[in-house]
Write a structure and sequence with these properties.
The protein is mostly helical. The chain has one domain (about 5-144). The chain is built from six helices and no strands. It has helices at about 5-25, 30-45, 60, 70-75, 90-110, 120-144.
């Protein structure tokens, strides 16, 4: 199995290609919001919400004091089973993390009158970035 650094290197090489292709596609009217959304999603999917989140991996340790939020996921899923399914594993992690994000979103943006409203399109693009990063992780695991 590839180690953590090989996964990161593989993901970021592919990430650079994706960003470049995204830029070429929108070269006339670049949408910086969409670019930032997919970049952030890909980064989160590579560093924090990986298929290895169910072990004592570097991604799990990166959560620091917040890793208590990941414990229910870690206790529920066994490594290299459903967590390493390209579609099911990513969807379960996204749903799990989405609940956490929505709670924080509500606490930060809805309870305060900031006037900031994030379009659902950016949320979908953000989640798509996580799915791509997770899929690349599983693909690399299956290659080696």
């Amino acid at each position: 199995m590839p180690g953590y650094n090989k996964h990161r290197l593989f993901n970021y090489i592919i990430f650079i290609v994706i960003v470049f292709l995204f830029y070429l596609e929108n070269a006339i009217h670049p949408d910086i919001g969409r670019l930032l959304a997919i970049c952030l999603g890909f980064y989160i999917g590579t560093e924090f919400v990986t298929p290895d989140l169910d072990t004592n991996s570097t991604a799990y340790k990166r959560w620091g004091n917040l890793k208590i939020l990941i414990l229910p996921y870690k206790w529920t899923f066994k490594h290299r089973q459903s967590s390493h399914n390209i579609l099911y594993g990513a969807i379960v992690r996204i749903l799990y993390i989405s609940i956490i994000i929505l709670v924080f979103y509500y606490l930060i943006f809805k309870s305060l009158s900031t006037g900031l409203d994030i379009s659902p399109v950016y949320g979908i693009i953000f989640l798509f970035g996580i799915i791509i990063a997770n899929a690349l992780h599983v693909i690399l695991d299956n290659i080696f």
